[in-house]
Amino acid sequence: MQHKKRQALILIAHGSKDPEWSSPFQTITNNVKKNWLKGPVELAFFELQKPLLETVIQMLIDSGYKCIHVEPLLLANGFHLKNDLPKRVKNIISMHEGLNLTFGKPLINHKNIQRSICEVILNPSN
Fold first, then answer.
1. What fold is seen in the domain 8-122?
2. CA Rg value for the chain
3. 39 Rama sector, left if φ>0, alpha if ψ -120 to 50, beta otherwise
């Protein structure tokens, strides 16, 4: 069954060998799931942890989703967003005709994130 009007959301983080590292990202994912009404929300990783991005995209495609938004949980536009993600996405799209993948910006590009970082630096006890 194809979900034409619904959009799946993937939150993608770097990944780590430390299993506790992903705990804040799991919390973010759970909070987003409570408020994202367009479709499923999944957490994926670039490397070092599972599930990897390709696995999550394939799972969503197998569930009938053709419209998937990927929101990076990465602070800046570094290697993974500039080089790694475009190559991986090109491979994924070449295997799945009609797949519509969209992407969010690195976190630092959001003004509210910039303000929050300044607040934490200026008021470290909060």
1. Rossmann fold (3.40.50)
2. 15
3. left
Q: Which two tokens stand for residue 25?
A: 């990202």
Q: According to the model, what pLDDT value does residue 17 have? A: 94
Q: How many CB atoms lie within 10 A of CB 36?
A: 16
pTM of the model: 0.88
User: What are the backbone dihedrals phi and psi of residue 52, each rounded to the nearest 5 degrees, phi first?
Assistant: -80, 160
* Res. 124 pLDDT band, cuts 50 70 90: confident
CA 110/CA 37 separation, integer angstroms: 22
In which element (H, E) is residue 86 found?
helix 85-95
25-45: pLDDT as tens digits: 999 999 999 999 999 999 999
Q: What is the pLDDT of residue 3?
A: 54
For every residue of 29-43, which 3-state class applies, written as one string?
A: HHHHHHHCCCCCEEE
Instruction: Give the C-alpha distances (Å, rounded to integers) separating 53 from 41, 58, 59, 69, 108.
Output: 13, 9, 10, 12, 21
Contact 107, 113 (CB under 8 A): yes
Instruction: Report the pLDDT value the prediction gives residue 83, as an integer from 0 to 100.
Output: 82
